[in-house]
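Q: Here's a chain of 165 amino acids. Please give me its 3D structure as tokens.
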Amino acid sequence: MQKGEGAKSPLEEKGPIMETNTQAPATAVSATASAELPLSNNAMAALGYFFPPVAIAALVIKQYEGEASVRFHAVQSLVFAASTCVASFVLGTMMAIAMSLVSVVIGALNLWVIAAVVFRMASALSMLYGLGILAIWITLIVAASQGKQLELPFLGKIAKRIGQR
């Protein structure tokens, strides 16, 4: 038998080869799609707490200008982030100065056991501060993603005043 008369190649024995179209189908973009918001209000508010540049973008993007809840959460996230940075710097500086003084005084008196206890207490307080900030941050993200307007005691009032401008 010759090759072309009745003998099948191994590929032909397995069945026909499926052709796939590698081109993506063309989709028409409607005129209203450009006017839609890129993210829902809740998603934009929650993302503002994750990334400060997103909060800044929420304040300058035209589609979110009229959304009071997005503006409030964006401003509150920026105020919370700034106040956390300032508080961390101030507390860290105070802790460093206090620990330096404690080590000098305790070192002069040769009471290193007391210094170890004081340093561990300072570390525990620092860790509690960090866990507290984390808990507040997660609470704010969850509240924003659920559409709730959770106002922090002091910072929320500042955020409302700034957000209404």
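Q: Can you summarize the key feature?
A: Residues 68-109 form the longest helix (42 residues).
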